[in-house]
Amino acid sequence: MMPSRTTRNPSAEGRRRQSPLVGFSQILAGTAVGQIVTFLAMPVLSRLYAPELFGVLTFALSIVAVLVPVALLGFDQAVLLPRADSSVTPIATAGVSSLAVVCCILACLVLWSPLTSTIDSATRPFLAWSLPILLFVTGVVSLLAQLAIRAGRYGSIGHRNTAQSIAITASQFAFINTTRFSGFNGLVTGTLIGTSLGAVLLSPYVKRYAHSFTLRQWFQSVRRYWRFPLIFAPMTSLTLLAQQAPVLFVIYWFGVSDGGQIGMAERIVAVPLALVGMAVSSVFTGEISQAIRTDERHMVRIYLKTSMWLGVASGLVGLGLFFLAPIVLPLFLGTGWQGAAQIAQAMAIVATTRMLASPVRSVFRVLERARILVTIELSRAAFLVITIAFATTSDLDLLASLTLIFIALAVGDLISWFCGLVVVWQANSGVATIRR
């Protein structure tokens, strides 16, 4: 690090940070190992677990993904911003407290609400305990990962990615014999065990940021970052709900078995997205927040350089899915998964735009640009609702409905990327201040 950076912010930033290139390489390597293990396990798991069981897993992961930002009140993102490490503790505590409450509410909803109406009734008691615990563990991992990013220790995220993916896959294999029990899902349980290991591996960051605080300091911190629980967290969940909309739409409209088909397609597409997107997103968010804390003005360069590399990678992924998915995936996954291959081909366009836009979307939260984020996400949601309504009223089949939804999501991704560039340019040039 440059001496000037240490002088300007001696509390946390004076500590040694990994360079962005080293951090990206370590996260990429760690994620690559985990994704390779996951990818190699797919053809075996797809032959051992029925599409209905994958449908339940897909449902659980979709619900957790949507709820995590709201459950944490967005404070997992806010921990990147305070200059002093001691100011992080009350924010993190508020997030974990809210997470625990939401998990309890979710357990009640699973048992006594229509949330799981499309799931087999024998599986609901299992989801009543496993889904809230999975939500809690995933939320803790999300928070701890942001603390690692704040510290600039990107390598620990890569190590966690490797261990977590291996543990999930190994646990899912271990529960193969449970497929004959209708009230148990080994795929969900394996995911829960592996994610818990990820939380354990990142737990050392709890000690680093564990500082005592008063109730007054807690309220001051929550008030200072009020935009996160009131605006950024709901908008993040709205973004994730849009991304999960195809899955949830299929599960509720076409059934859990078809939900397993799109879930498998999502798992295939997620391999390159996770491999590149997670590494880029972690480093990008860390470097942008670092530039803000040290008042440096090179954010446009970071944004464009990141987008350039993402554009090349996303183009290759999109072309590969479009031309190879119908040929390779039926052989790879086995009989009964032809639908997943067709869905993966239809996902080519949204996979391309999602890889480009998702890793840099955090710029709205880091720069605290609430109004433009609200406008983008509400517009995306409205467009998506119109598209789904058209698909249902027109009585389109599964593939045609999903193709329309994927196109709508792709348009939203491109708009989001362009607005992110505008926001960064304004902040970089001083037209808009970061702290309003």
TrEMBL record:
The keyword Cytoplasm does not apply. It is found in: Cell membrane. The chain crosses the membrane at residues 21-41, 53-75, 87-114, 126-149, 184-206, 227-255, 267-288, 309-333, 339-360, 372-392, 398-425. GO terms for cellular component: plasma membrane. It comes from the Bacteria. It is a multi-pass membrane protein. Pfam families: Polysacc_synt_3. Keywords: Cell membrane, Membrane, Transmembrane, Transmembrane helix. This is Lipopolysaccharide biosynthesis protein. InterPro entries: Poly_Biosynth_Transport.
